[in-house]
Amino acid sequence: VQLVESGGGLVQAGGSLTLSCAASGFAHDDYTIGWFRQVPGKERVGIACISTRDDSTHYADSVKGRFTISRDNAKSMVYLQMNGLKPDDTGVYYCNAMVGGRTYWGQGTQVTVSS
Length: 115
Prior knowledge:
The chain is mainly β and 115 residues long. The chain has strands spanning 2-6, 9-12, 17-24, 32-38, 45-51, 57-59, 67-72, 77-82, 91-99, 102-105, 109-114. The protein is globular, with a radius of gyration of 13 Å. The model has no long low-confidence stretch (mean pLDDT 95).
């Protein structure tokens, strides 16, 4: 399994960014894929995820109503649309997949929100 993120950058508070994750190498199409955020000195925290089984989604309370996770199965892509960004959204965002009891991570992409 390979996960490659893109789309991070610097944005002003209130702005928007879209993160992309190119996912490949899955042996089957039933898994959960999503995004985690990590800031220095702290553990990675789950932000949003989507199930390929039924497209159900889950969000951290801190991003509900502002972030939207989606996927394009044909392109093997997962997206995180982030609107109304806040300085607290700053961190390294990692694409994450849980397949058959194993967890996979991308290399991460930095998102910085200036006040």
